[in-house]
Amino acid sequence: MSSSLIQKAELLNALHVSGTPLIVTNVWDAITATTVAQTPGVKALASASHSVSNVRGLQDGEGLTVDEAIIAARIITSAVDLPVSIDFEKGYAADAAGVSRNVRRLIEEGGAAGINIEDSVGAAKSPQFDIGTAAARVAAAREGAEAAGVPLVINARVDTLAGGGEWTEAVARANAYLDAGADVIFFLGLTDEDKVKRALDEVNGRISVIGVPGLVPLKRLAELGVSRVSFGPGTLGVALAALQSAATTLTGLGDYPEDLGFKFKL
After folding, report:
1. pLDDT in tens, 21-42
2. Which residues lie closer than 8 Å to 44 by C-beta, 6 or more apart?
3. Which superfamily does 3-234 belong to?
4. 68-87: per-residue pLDDT in tens?
């Protein structure tokens, strides 16, 4: 594996700093990747599986095949020089051995410097794999990365709270995934400051969260000690809302929207 991808993975890991969080504005194709990468201050990118699937007319929840997911990853990673973390859903495999194989392919063929991996069984946040099985899948992702020779940054998602589960189980899962080889815990369901603080106190590693309007502001997440914030399909929503607004104005013979002159390039 090229030293460049190794260096990107090392950089991606180093960017996850408690109190100075990595902000990743999620992208889904080459043009969104290059546009965000050209934005001052952006240091790394992350895909969002929901967006990657939806722009292809597919549902989230591994609506893509593993081959299609790897191609989609490669389209993004090959468009930019920054490290890219790929939302790899559940690893596109029924068992841990398959997760290991697919993660190795994602690195070697898709150019991923990091991944998200989920612990829910289906498209919904519940049910989840039992803790032992979910941890084994995280360990398998690490094994695949080691086989590829890249220190892949594994952002292991805990869906427990989002799926209506209990706090103690969520924390137990987070710590089990860290023990299995995860670098960061993507802790869903931290909807207020108290939950964020409690997670930071009880999880034995770095915390990643999703930023949502109306919940904990970005500056406060940084002050509390979160290490990464992403926005999932919310950034696709931003783009679609702007497109719909422009379509409404244009259809109504209104003034040309200023953004109609936005200069973009691959």
Report:
1. 999 999 999 999 999 999 999 9
2. 11, 12, 15, 22, 24, 82, 83, 84, 85, 113
3. Phosphoenolpyruvate-binding domains (3.20.20.60)
4. 999 999 999 999 999 999 99
